[in-house]
Design goal:
This protein is an alpha+beta fold. It contains two helices and five strands.
Length: 92
């Protein structure tokens, strides 16, 4: 299974759909995954999955705001995010 780390500014509507579906009332402390990236920095993220990919979405206050705005007005949400991802991690 492919694992992809996604930053707030690289979110797609599909990933936002997954986040809002999995965390309709927001995420809790127990939902947060902490790990070290290739630069040895601690990253906090929440996980959402598709059939073939695990997305680790980096946590920030802007992520929470975006999820709330997207859920409140899903039909009019502007797709202003790139479809590229920050980092891809091979699942060894």
């Amino acid at each position: 299974m492919k694992r992809v780390i996604v930053d707030y500014n690289k979110l797609t509507n599909d990933i936002l759909d997954l986040l809002v579906e999995k965390f309709p009332d927001g995420y809790n402390y127990k939902d947060i995954i902490s790990f070290k990236n290739s630069k040895n920095e601690t990253i906090n993220a929440v996980e959402v999955r598709t059939e073939d990919t695990v997305f680790l979405v980096k946590i920030s206050s802007r992520l929470e705001e975006t999820m709330e705005d997207y859920d409140a007005d899903e039909d009019n949400f502007d797709d202003v995010f790139d479809s590229d991802f920050d980092e891809e991690v091979d699942d060894d």
